[in-house]
Amino acid sequence: MNDFQSTLDTALSKTNVIGAVAAIGNSGGITSLAAAGLSDAASGNAMATDSIFQIASMTKAITSAAALQLVERGALSMDDPIGAVLPDLGDAQVLIGFADDGSAQTRAANSQITLRHLLTHTSGLGYSFTSGDMGKAQGEVVPGSLNSLKSPLMFEPGSDWLYGVNTDWVGLAVEAVSGQSLGDYMAQQFFEPMGMKDTGFAVPTDKASRRVSLMAATADGFAPFPLEIGGGDAAEFTSGGGGLYSTAPDYMRFMQMILGKGVFDGNRILSEESVRSMSTNQIGGIRAGKMESFVPMLANTFDAFPDMQSEWGLGFLINPKDGRNGRAAGSLAWAGIANCYYWIDPANDIAGLALMQFLPFGDERALGVFAQVEQSAYRTS
Fold first, then answer.
1. Could you confirm whether 60 is annotated as catalytic?
2. What CA–CA distance (Å, rounded) separates 12 from 215?
3. Which of 32, 57, 239, 274 is catalytic?
């Protein structure tokens, strides 16, 4: 048994996490890959290295890269009002309070939302589970509906950081200017040229047996939680913020491209300048990365670097100091709500991920598995 497989097996046995796939790689490709535990508790199916996960918000980095391709081609602007492309964002209102009947009270925003605001989560839009006021202002909305993306702003664009629906709007902007569905655009520009053969916004019937079941942690272990994070077939939009399915090897190819400064296997996917922008702080002195949770069944409050003034690029969290598990300052990271986590360390030419499939997000056991994967990467590098 190789050391990395042993690391993952031990991590799962210590935490009782039901199953995981993990990988470590560099700009040349995967260096370590392992699967452990079960992909489905009911059937007893074993996890495999090509198991397919709902990667949820790990989608955001790819959607952000798609938008930057279109900026490179002059089809999108970083700093012009995005309302010219997305009219629903053209007359933004800022929440100032609630009336006695609970209805939202607003005023016109002093500035227009831009693509840069959306890519950096500084538009003022959140999620209903990360902002109690946004949830209250929205009221009851159907998940996967366009109304689930619409809300007054929680603050003036550019003045603060709040994790939310921003990248779903970015996906809609990609569709608006490309004339393609987000899935078709990503397949043409990313998945096909990079060989990401198991990544998309739906799982084909012939691959359904490889799909990992979503679970919820309970006092007695884990229970089925049949949720389509991207909204499923009834969704009114393709979720650029959270709708992709993928595998560990596929997502490593995307991270390999980022480590390669936009080049994958000799082919340029993104310009070096776009990758530099994704990897560089874009929000000044605003602190990024802390995610409050108002829906505990979905997520715990999460802060990857509570001791740092964490930064945000165009799609990635950035740690300005060395991380406790090995990654260098200036590394890039984010996650998916079903306890999927990744990091990209350009300084050391290392990337890694750990994919699990259960709620709530930020589970201490899942974070323990991820920490073991990261520590392993630097022991063997």
1. yes
2. 16
3. 57
pLDDT in the model for residue 1: 46
Taking residues 137-159, report their average pLDDT: 95
Instruction: Out of 163, 185, 245, 251, pick the active-site residue.
Output: 163
State how beta strands 267-268 and 358-359 pair.
unpaired
The whole-angstrom separation of Cα 149 and Cα 139 is 12
pLDDT in tens, 32-69: 999 999 999 888 899 999 999 999 999 999 999 999 99
C-beta separation of 94 from 124 below 8 A: yes
What is the residue-averaged pLDDT of the chain?
A: 96
Q: Are strands 358-359 and 215-218 parallel, antiparallel or unpaired?
A: parallel
In angstroms, what CA-CA distances link 234 with 4, 181, 208? 40, 16, 19
* H/E stretch holding 335: strand 331-336
Which domain, by its residues, includes 291? 3-380
- Return d(Cα 42, Cα 226) in angstroms, integer: 13
Domains contained in the chain, number: 1
Give pTM, 2 decimals. 0.97
Query: 3-state class of 291 per DSSP?
Result: strand
Percent of the chain with pLDDT over 70: 99
Would you state the pLDDT for residue 43? 86
Sign of CA dihedral 164, 165, 168, 172: negative
Q: CATH number of the domain that 339 lies in?
A: 3.40.710.10
Question: Among this protein's residues, is 163 annotated catalytic?
Answer: yes
- Per-residue pLDDT of 309-351, as tens digits, reads 999 999 999 999 999 999 999 999 999 999 999 999 999 999 9
| Catalytic residue (one of 32, 39, 51, 60) | 60
Closest CA to 375 of 354, 361, 360, 347: 354
